[in-house]
Amino acid sequence: MNTSCSLTDAASRQASGAASVGGQPHLIWPAEAIWQSVSPLLPGFTVEVLPEIASTNSELMRRARAGRMEPVLLVAEQQSAGRGRLGRGWDSNRGDSLTFSLGLPLARADWSGLSLAVGVSLAESLDPRIRLKWPNDLWLDDRKLAGILIETAMSSAGGQERYAVIGVGINLAERAGTGFATAPAWLREVLPDCQPGAVLLRVAGPLVQAIQAFERAGFAAFKARFDARDALRDRAVVLSDGTVGLGRGTTALGALRVQTAGGVTDVTSSEVSVRPSA
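RE: above sequence
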């Protein structure tokens, strides 16, 4: 596994810099290098880097509702109103986190397991020690390293094609653990020198390839890889309705299988949130 997390010389020469804000460190963003790696896969693809925005997901959803559904990677150095799953906030500070949203058309009728496929791609791009907590978190030693939020807008052209907005937030630097249901982890624990631009370059191309693989084959193409990193497998879990049981992996469509006193039940992401029991 490549443990380097710095820009190559070529990427550094191509990088687009964002001006420092409020005396905070200047950040380097390899926008051109990312564009060159992704544009052959996604014609019309663009990369945008903003110093600050309320939420990258909210902005791409706003554009989609206005009919703008071109493929784009929108990066925010800082978010003032970042969002996670179930309406939870996601704080981000310049240089200490990486927050971005990838928007692209996705012509697949069944999106079951998409967040799991995204998690697989991110984890494989970052570090073999990262595990996946169903349905949308990356964990390091049972602490939350990153989260995924997927939203969708319908194409005005009709048919099966919809516009996917895939938001990702990754903790890079140490952060206080108070106020969180799950204690935070940060990427510099395993990649000490990582910077936001280098991490983005590391994950962006493989993520687009993974989404296109999902579009062709669904979660089946990722199931074994997810199961190999499943943080809940064979562990006691508590569902949001109070049900307790043991995690038993995932189904072919990405539902969580839970062994309860009444038998095995398949749980979808719209029904529950899950945490290991104490």
